[in-house]
Protein 1
Amino acid sequence: MRNKTERFFKKMSNTSFDLAAAPMFIVAFGFPVLIFAVAVLIAVWAVSRIIRINKKNKEGSHKK
Amino acid sequence: MGRLAIWIYAHFAVDFGCFYVLHAGLKNFLGGDLETLAAGFLAYNVIAFGLQSVIGAICDERQVWRRVSGFAGCVMVCLAVVTAAVSEGAVVWAAMVTAALGNAFFHVGGGIDVLRRSGGRMSGSGIFVSSGAMGVALGTLCRAGVVTILLMLAAVVLTGMLAREDMNEQAEADKYVHFGTAKEGSFVLMVALLMTAVFVRSYAGSVMPMEWEKTGWLAVAPAAASCLGKALGGTAADRFGAARCAVVSLLVSAPLIILGAANVLCSLAGILLFNMTMPVTLCGLASLMPRNPGFAFGLTTLALLTGVGITYFWAMPAAAVKPAVAVMTGVAALCTGRACNNERWKEYEKQNRKIF
């Protein structure tokens, strides 16, 4: 078990991923991705609302 | 007229304040870090333009939101301006987010009020939106915090008066909007055509060629031309019909923008004509969904955001700009011409006298 733990930490310390740089990594890549995701979400929601309004309009014209 | 004058001034002040926060605040703080600055500007655009459809939809459902949205937006932008003017450091990010949120609330609140009280005229919405262009241009150049705070305080007081007046109304006279701009036909197709027209116009406007030096008064000249175009567009559409006004102005603008790119006057005339379609597309969408003026207003800004957003991720090759702008202007003219009719305001008012 101890060997396994040692091996794990050794492996981790050899990786190129720098933990100290993680916040900057999140800011550099996470921020634009977040912005893009929000924009896509709003666009999808807007399309669904347009379809709902269309449905309501059709129902209204049938009632007339 | 009094209400419209207040909205025009407040729109100028809000856009002035927002661009003061972006340039004197955020840009000043980030200095040469252009990548982070671009991400910040994109975030501002997504919050300010993207959220208008969501806020607009809530305003369409809830009377209180509809009545105080414009005032609340002014207060938020005022707070952001004060924060950016008196503090330094990373707090400008918070000011930027507050300004963007305030911008979204203000535009929806003002937009709904102007559309509702326009009596079927497109001129009101064009005049309301037009003053924002000047606010953007002058706010970008302004570095005087005190001036911006005073401008914003006046806007807060004036829109506060409007909100108070609205809150004292026992019942709203009419929460629907009445325009005869869009043609009858498939609802989804008409919405898609009008949004495509706005999207294409937005992108073409972002990459528009201007081969003259923007120094001195010429720095604000494109904004002034855009402002005048939006204001005249609605009046011309009321007088000559929406489709006729939009198609003619777009088709005449294309050669002026492309062939006259090196000439200041040709270029400015092109920008003026290019912007005349704005009230037509807005009122076209509002006429398709009379119970949802807030959402209709938000859809136009969502299409604007999509057009501007492309420029953050992809730069068009310089050689392709002029032909692309020509094609895009043609597409915008085609979409608007197909989606709108040629009914003049006087004819529409005669047919619907009972409503007005």
Protein 2
Amino acid sequence: MGGVRTGVASAAESACAGRLPCRVEMAIFLEQLVNGLTVGAVYSLVALGYTMVYGVMRLINFAHGDFFMLGSYLGYTMLVTVLAQSNLPLWAMLCVATLVSVVAIACLGVFVERMAYRPLRKSSRLTAVVSAIGVSIFLQNAAMLIWGARYQAYPPWSVPEVSWTLGGVNVSLMQLLIMGISLVLMVSLYMFVQRTTVGAAIRATAIDHDTARLMGIDVDQIIRIIFVIGPGLGAIAGVLLGLYYRQIHFTVGWSYGLKAFTAAILGGIGNIPGAMVGGMLLGILEMLGAGYISAAWKDVFVFLILILLLIFRPTGILGERVAEKV
Amino acid sequence: MRLEFAKPASFIRAHSAWFIGALIVLAAALPLLVSDYWVDVCVFWGINVLLGLSLNIIVGEVGLFNMGHMAFFAIGAYTTAILSERFGVNLWLLIPVSGLAAAGAGYVLTGPIIHLRGDYLLMVTIGLNEMIRISLINNPFALTGGPNGLIVMDQFRIFGHVIQSPADFYYLVWAAIALLLFCLGRLQRSRVGRAWNYVREDPIAAEATGINTRWAKVLAFTLGAGIAGATGTIFAAKMMVISPDSFTFMESVILFCIVILGGMGSIPGVILASGAMLVLPELLRNFAQYRMLLFGLAMVVMMIFRPQGLWPSRRWTTRLKEGDGE
Amino acid sequence: MTQETPLLSLSAVSRNFGGLRAVDSFDLSVAKGSITSLIGPNGAGKTTVFNLITGIYRPDSGKITFSDSALIGMLPHQVVEAGIARTFQTLRLFENLTCFENVLAGQHCRCRAGLFACILNTRSCQAEEVRAHSETERCLRNLGIWHLRDELARNLSYGDRRRLEIARAMASRPKLLTLDEPAGGLNERESDELMEVIREIRDSGITVFLIEHDMRVVMGISDHVAVMEYGRKISEGTPDEVQSDPAVIEAYLGIDDEEDERKEAGESVQ
């Protein structure tokens, strides 16, 4: 999984081994914290897609990670083909690339929902999950056939190489951008769901499709909206991650998807603030685990936390109690 | 009055003795009829059938979503490699030993999580799969050989004959399948097999009807894990090199899908679906790179148009032995 | 109230859900060989009492005794093994299995064959199967659905599904059969037949404890009736005694949206 940032992780490890002054240790801790928040922000954006689909349809959308992966690839393709020829300023290029990627992935999301999920809405949950896995395998292999099995790299000129040192902690512009953009997106999504009529309709549909329909809500329309927002956020996360790590691969959909879904469960699946908190927490835990325990074992650490959490608090951190009704 | 169980009549069933006889003769003569290459394909098909049947106990019979089955297969294979290479334990003895090791792991690992709801269980089993694969890569106590894996030099010997040619393995694997089929057939129409089906249909009703659902679930998980572990010994002997790459989350997902596509709880379905997964791509070599793409598509199409699977299992019905006493 | 030894007795049983006191120091005794009914308006806590007896919930306080042994702390399947079988208000059948298999489920706890015995198909395992099959056949015949044995449960009519669920409960050879609204959704003829079935079960020596809304059924077959409101027992006695208890009349008349019940309770007063 990733493993690109292990340079930082092993630096922290060796720093811990030798006795360093307290201030340096603090700086390393803060640096890991910033790294964790950055990755966590990406997890949160992806987790939102999982949690919204699960909340409304009770479906683990296995293909969601692949929307994220395709978003990353589309951004890359836009940058290296069309935009490389243009003489737009860098910020405009990045905006255009992101926008195109978001629109394309949102369309793909709606299309996938229409073709692969809607016919199965009335059947058992397992059937829909298997269909989602099928979509995921299809998209993953399509990406492999289109872009190749090797890593692709975002061009160096596309990434703004600016960073500052704040109190001994190195923070790059990209990290601030990722955290800032994620925060703005998440807050606006939360406002949208809590404060608007459409948001209320989404919440109603999440509780009960039939009742929502009786109240005059077009459930198909709501699900379509969910499949615009979720994959759209995923595509943004994909472009951001591509710019951050530079390298992208057709398997990142599964590796990041799995982490993001873990984050969604961590926060309480179906719960939007939960996905945000879960993503951030997972990112921080992962980076601190990598820094202070071992980079190689960090994923074991993450899954161990997931399992312990599910055993002792199966509803996640912010989830509500869902008793099985007799 | 004594009751006897029978499956609903059909042409195949009415002449089942002839069909089974013809199949056995054909299967036994196969290595003489086709090239070693195809015999090898059938060996891998057989290994997948063994794995599919073991997972079918958990997913098909009890309805527990286990997407981490390769973890138990890996435990079996690595137990074989370690005990065989370090301690020179006989491979025949290692079949039950690896089976017990994997069953033990299944028992211990699933004990705390077995009560989780479907989706959560699925997530946790994926997590377990990843934890075990990453642990194998990280080479704890220099036991597992890291990413390169381990070598198995020993071979099965029977009355001085060394099992090494594709045909030898072919007979070994399919004999194991025959034995397993016999046992599973007995189980399916016994008290234990019925208890599994009751739990799959409605766990709350099963519990309220006097079935210890926890016992039924743990038993199925332990047995399925044990069979996968024993299969690991055959796999290790066949491959001679085992590495963590063979036991990825992706492989577990494909195995899971084989069980669902075959028809949950259906033994012929598992054989057919794993055959379709392994043999068909060999027939269509020109399309090899599209194999997984088509597999993904086929999963979606199957779920929409034939969710019950290729060969759905049918219920046993009663037949009165001494006339029909209405 | 009853001179016979109670088969089942609840004393001071309470259970809270969050801030809601669903069952509030509830006492009840079910006499051996009787048909005892528990009635009360919707939301009175009747089904919770059922779930407390059958081990699905654990009471916060109080004692539940069944033929001289404590039930509290037992898991639902252990309660069945101890001799209490139940049906559900919303039917819970094994929809994709045949009726025969559905009823055979009840025999599970009376058999002992484990994994290896089943694979080896041992002699004792075979003998057990024969016993289980004949018991299943007996239950299906008693409930009059033997001819449907090979049908899948999901294909049955509503009345037959009710019977199937009772047959499944009976197959565990219970001492006490607990029925959660067995007449719910049945028409008059079907509920008459049901009453006959319940009487036969009682006459075969099995104690019956039921929750029911249909006053005709309750008053028609019960030996003893307990009335519940807001988690408490407000009245108890023979059907006649209960029908003339002012507390009961008030409990039922106090509910506006329960048109049927008001009518029935009102009728029984006159």
Protein 3
Amino acid sequence: MKRTTYIVVAGVVLLFGLSWVLHAVSMSGEADGVARAFMITIAAFLTLAIYSFLYKDNPFYKFAEHLYVGVSAAYWMCQAFWSTIVGNLFPRLSEGLSNYFQQPYQASDWNITYWIPVILGIMLLMRLTQKYGWMSRWPLAMIVGTTAGLNFVRYLRSDFIVQVSSTFMPLLGEDPHGWQGFGAFFSNLDLSASGQLAAIVSNWVIFFGVICGIIYFYFSKEHSGAFGRASRLGIWILMITFGASFGYTVMGRISLLVGRITFLFRDWLEIIS
Amino acid sequence: MSNLGVIISLLVIFGGLTWLLFRSIKGREVDRRVIFVFIFLAVAAPILFPITFQEHASPVVKGLFDHIDNLPPGSRVLISFDYDPAMAPEVQPMANAISLHCLDRGHKVVFMSLWATGQTLLFNTLQDVIRPEFPDLIDGVDFVSTGYKAGNEGVLNVIVSDFKKMFPTDVNGVPLDSAVIFDEINSCADFDLIVALGGGRPGPKEWVLFVGDPADVPIGVGVAAVVAPQLYPYYPRQIIGMLGGVKGAAEYESELAHRHERFKDMAQPGLKMMGPQTLAHIVIMCFIVIGNVVFFRSRRREGR
């Protein structure tokens, strides 16, 4: 490493060390003040380390990135072991194991079939060995099959049948009153977002939007004439939808930035309340 | 001081943007890091010098608000915290506002989580928001937290027909059979409303697929902005209302403060975040305009 790198690292360590000391002093009255001061300082350091990538790739970013990946993997492994195997399986499997892990044994739930996931789990781990790696294909097939079977009916109903029926909108007014003629429509004209006019316009947009969107993906007929115009409208609908999605994504990312900057200003620098 | 700070910040930001526009028109490149600095300023300035905007609930937010408001007191509501700290800045304000609203209306609320990380955030809501606001409510009678249960969609698949099979005890280890709130609750079908908060998997979409549609239970959702467009097709037939991102949270908080005197002066983190949101979006739009102006000018120059 270059000399300047050492100086920068020493400077950063010194800066955040000083931050820890200052926070610890200001929190000296609290029971876990020193530990909390350390956590705030580390959180601030990691936040800034991650954002430092915006300037350019650097060792602080690399350190924060690797730490994040490592901690996440370890956290989820522990969670899976303690919540699924210890929390869900052992209390239904063995009194001895339940007692060992200090879990209440659920004798009424005992069932010999619970040994099947145990065996399948062990077979899945066989992937780590070269000789018996083939055994992991069976539980994997079981997982894929079960997920597909479980999801098939749910998705078919909620994402297909109900969605198709939801596309058939009342084009001339919503329930419960429906369309009662132009006289009633204009005498009760409501221009608000929840009014009847907005509902009618919205329903027409959904109806034509879906039809034109489908036409755009229909390639068995040449996209010319009226069919071509509908197809072009379809691509516009798709672009507007992608734009809305992008807008929402930007909003989500800005929210995260607001959260981190608020943390830095409030908890670390203590310049806002 | 605050107003002066806002004015100076706006002058710096928009003065800088104008300078960038002229610089770009002259054909000089703008380093991408300059854009990051402007976004930082646009977000940091309204945090230091708060700018607040008026929000009005849109029909999609009002759908959930009105449903909670119109349920008779004593109705059973399930709120699921299916998110992690990465989504918390957006979803936690919704979780707090909806929980307060339900308990204020006298509903019996069951809290749960399908995400391990959601349990801690649920604890934060109970400890920092609900306990101070409703010190007289009794755990197990007025509300209960069943905590986190591993199993993702598998949990939903079971609780849709038998809730206590997956959650025999609450988060403190007290059997649910002894909790008064669970006297008339056997499955998810016994809830009058389910509010799914999150944005990942399992999340609001899985609640619709595995519980809402099969059990015919009204579902309301509060989601991170990134996934909001994916859930719009479910409104209004499969979900009764939706809070999308921090804008949805701000609209809900605004409606709550507007219609319930008790929450007039409550903390409104969602509404507070709309200042930085608005300014950052304006800056992004300015950069899009600058980019387009420069692009069309350079194209015209090439055409000559």
